[in-house]
Specification:
single chain; 128 residues; alpha+beta; 4 helices
């Protein structure tokens, strides 16, 4: 089987994901994904698509992540993996879609407005 690729995005993070048949090795930016994503929550986020589709340990993943923080990068990687798994076997799509893994999360950081402290927070009002 040749390599299949897809793109996943979350917040400002972009993940270019490449999958081929193998033993379940996941490499992120040249490092093992457990080293790149130090917490168990982020590691489970990355593996969630494989667990739902019952394909843990059957594919090797190579990913190039760019932008954002590690939480956004983990979500982008999960979306890229989900898209590839659906491309390889369309019967996996209903299970992944029911868990919400096939949808790009549209939530982004709201910009700071001028004359305010943050996006919504304002400077303290003084009547006198």
């Amino acid at each position: 089987m040749e390599t299949t690729n897809a793109i996943g995005r979350r917040k400002c993070a972009v993940a270019r994901v490449y999958i081929k048949e193998g033993t379940g090795v996941i490499t992120v930016n040249g490092r093992d994904f457990k080293e790149y994503f130090p917490t168990a929550i982020l590691q489970n986020t990355v593996l969630q698509a494989f667990e739902i589709s019952a394909t843990v340990g059957t594919y090797d993943v190579t990913a190039n992540l760019d932008g954002g923080g590690i939480t956004g990068q983990a979500g982008a990687l999960r979306l890229g993996i989900s898209r590839i798994l659906c491309e390889l076997d369309p019967t996996r799509r209903p299970a992944l879609k029911a868990e919400g893994l096939m949808r790009r999360d549209p939530r982004m950081v709201e910009r700071k407005k001028f004359g305010q402290k943050k996006a919504r927070k304002r400077f303290q009002f003084s009547k006198r």
